[in-house]
Amino acid sequence: MESSKFSKHITLICISLFSITLLNCNQISEGQQRRKFEFLYKMNNHASLLSEYTNGISYYKDLDFYEGRMKILYPDVIKMDPIKDWGVSRILKEKFLKTIDDNLLTLNNFKQKQFPVGENIRKEYDIIVMNERVDYFMKELNDAISIVGKE
What we know:
- By secondary structure, this protein is mainly α.
- It has helices at about 1-55, 60-80, 85-110, 125-150.
- It has one domain.
């Protein structure tokens, strides 16, 4: 009889210890995963703006608007703190900033061509390249979100 009580207590203690250990590991992982998701979704919101602004370039007059929006967006991205001990966040931030820089460089080179104000420039090579650059970054960002979701 005492042996049965003793084994029940041991079993209860083992189950409790296992549950506490599992719960603590799960909380740690959820905390880090939550921080990663917060970073990624904040970045995704900013990247969606970049995509919207880039896709919105149709006429020569849109270039100044785009440039103004990038002057607002760029500092917001710089302010984003990468996740400690997660190099992917630093790399994504650098790629995001590089995408903006490269698009601004392309935009400045394109402005040298001086198209008529009313002419649609949406299908011009430089504008297409800018959109492709943003699409490529968005794909990388979405891949990172998917990977974190599987952790």
